[in-house]
């Protein structure tokens, strides 16, 4: 587990999160993740700390509203979301792409699990993943 510093593009939103990138990351084919090119990792609430920018966050929900996606009001980047699932409980979905001090080697080594969020089928990867 390593403590990473993360931010949106304009730095209004800043956070730290304790993450083991070797534990994996996720890419999803749902209508939302596809549009924002989401690459996320699951972080337990006790391992996430918002350092700055709470008032600069805008929130978006859609569909079953299982996840609250947070965006910077200024630059539009989504640093994290907060979700709840029966399997994981409450968790943060932190955008791996917002981790400022993750090395390229760490990012390349992070395993990626592809999930079929489009069909709410979380146990079987989508048939096609190269475009995600
Ligand atoms: Zn920003």
From TrEMBL:
Identify the domain of life.
Bacteria
Domain called CENP-V/GFA: residue spans: 4-123
The molecular function GO annotations come to: carbon-sulfur lyase activity; metal ion binding
- InterPro entries, from UniProt? CENP-V-like, CENP-V/GFA, Mss4-like_sf
Q: Which UniProt keywords apply?
A: Metal-binding, Zinc
The similarity annotation says: Belongs to the Gfa family.
Supply the name of the protein: CENP-V/GFA domain-containing protein
Q: What is the lineage of its organism?
A: Bacteria, Pseudomonadati, Pseudomonadota, Betaproteobacteria, Burkholderiales
